[in-house]
Amino acid sequence: MALSILSSLRRLTLNEKIGSSIIARSVSTDSPLYFQVTQFLCAEPLKKKKRLDPAIVRAREEKRKKKLEKQIRRLEKNARQTKPIDECEVPMVLLEPEELKIRQRKIAPLTSAQVDERVRLTKDWTRYRYRQAIGDISIVERLAHSQARALQELRQESEELYQEAIQVDPALLPFSVRGPVVTPPIPDYESPDGEYVDITKKWT
């Protein structure tokens, strides 16, 4: 039995390559028949590139171009919009029809005497404001004329004094401001301790 197995495996051997050295384990003393395995390749044949119709390519380019133009128009439209202010916006609850009916106030119609009184008051106020504006304009013109006449007389007397008179006086209206350098502490303020959720809205 053992001789039959040896005779069938007399030409077989195992060949293992490690680096540049070869380790062979022969089963028989005759000329061995090496079994060698090549490296497997993880690849596949290249797919044949499909040739598209020029009309289809042109249609795709037009579609992509229209999409970009639409996005640009949308960005330009939103660029003119200002950031909303929550404090200045009316809540949607108050804009509902039921809420408007509840909050709507009934105003009594004005009588003819009240209408005439309002018209008379409006006319009186208009006349008063007109006379006040005319008086202010006349005062400014009179002061400007007096100033120009005084400067003209001063220039005839001395050119140096005239040049000094027309210079701007920075100390005419003294104004100095000094604010707090440190924020005053809040009495009985307890600083928050722990995690918190930031709900600040961010606009891009």
TrEMBL record:
Pfam families: MRP-L28 (PF09812)
Biological classification of the source: Eukaryota, Metazoa, Ecdysozoa, Arthropoda, Hexapoda
Family assignment from sequence similarity: Belongs to the mitochondrion-specific ribosomal protein mL40 family.
Keywords, comma-separated and alphabetical: Mitochondrion, Ribonucleoprotein, Ribosomal protein, Transit peptide
Gene3D superfamilies tied to this protein: 6.10.250.3440
GO cellular component: mitochondrial large ribosomal subunit
The protein's name: Large ribosomal subunit protein mL40
Principal localisation: mitochondrion
Localisation: Mitochondrion
Domain of life: Eukaryota
Signal peptide annotation: none
